[in-house]
Design goal:
The protein is an alpha+beta fold. The protein has one domain (5-74): BolA-like (GMP Synthetase, Chain A, domain 3, 2-Layer Sandwich). Helices cover 29% and strands 26% of the residues. It has a 3-stranded mixed sheet. The protein is globular.
């Protein structure tokens, strides 16, 4: 069963409470999403570290229920 965008957003916000999260369903199939996650907690971390934090927030759903996630991360301006 595919994941819904609001479920992905909820999981990310649960792990990163100050995150500004934008989710887009790229293919309309519930399996291919794009996410932009902006958080002050990313400041001073490499892009790889930022992505690892987001993937950890998804609790192992990547590659299973959630097939693909194009991820952009950053800190607030």
């Amino acid at each position: 069963m595919p994941m819904e965008a609001r479920e992905i957003e909820s999981m990310i916000k649960e792990a990163i409470p100050d995150a500004q999260v934008t989710i887009q369903d790229l293919a309309g199939d519930g399996n291919h999403y794009s996410a932009t996650v902006i958080s002050e907690s990313f400041r001073g971390k490499s892009r790889v570290q930022q992505h690892q934090i987001v993937y950890q927030s998804l609790k192992g759903q990547m590659g299973g229920v959630l097939h693909a996630l194009a991820l952009q991360t950053g800190v607030p301006e």
